[in-house]
Specification:
This protein is mainly β and about 120 residues long. It has a single domain, classed as Jelly Rolls (Sandwich). Helix content is about 5%, strand content about 45%. The strands form 2 sheets. It has a 6-stranded antiparallel sheet, with no helix packed on it. It is globular and about 50 Å long. The model has no long low-confidence stretch (mean pLDDT about 95).
Length: about 120
């Protein structure tokens, strides 16, 4: 019989700082990776994570839930979407993102978060 596994973001397995504007807290649980990201006002993937990722746009698939704040997602083809509190999002690879407004955007990510913003 499998054991129940419980973890808390108060004690993450790993913390990955973004380039000056927030961080990702990472839990490895149940053979999966769950991330809690805090994107500070002024955060933009192409400025704050691109130097870490080394790709032209974010190549990670995100399946997430927005707790607070707002973010604009711009796909490589130019299409845009906006997410905010209570929204569940599925974002394919090939995008940029930026915080909208003066409140941090906090989200949970159940997608391919294993290598997100992880220095190589």
């Amino acid at each position: 019989m499998a054991d129940v596994e419980v973890k808390n973001f108060d004690s993450p397995d790993e913390t990955r700082p973004f380039e000056g504007k927030g961080q990702a807290e990472v839990l490895n649980i149940g053979g999966k990776v769950v991330g809690k990201a805090t994107f500070e006002p002024g955060w933009k993937w192409s400025e704050n994570v691109k130097p870490i990722a080394g790709t032209d746009s974010c190549q990670v698939s995100h399946l997430g839930y927005v707790i607070s704040g707002r973010m604009k997602i711009t796909m490589d083809d130019g299409s845009e979407a906006e997410v905010g509190p209570g929204d569940v999002m599925a974002i394919p690879p090939g995008h940029d993102g930026e915080v909208i407004g003066d409140e941090p955007c906090v989200s949970l990510d159940f997608g391919e978060f294993g290598d997100y913003a992880k220095p190589s």
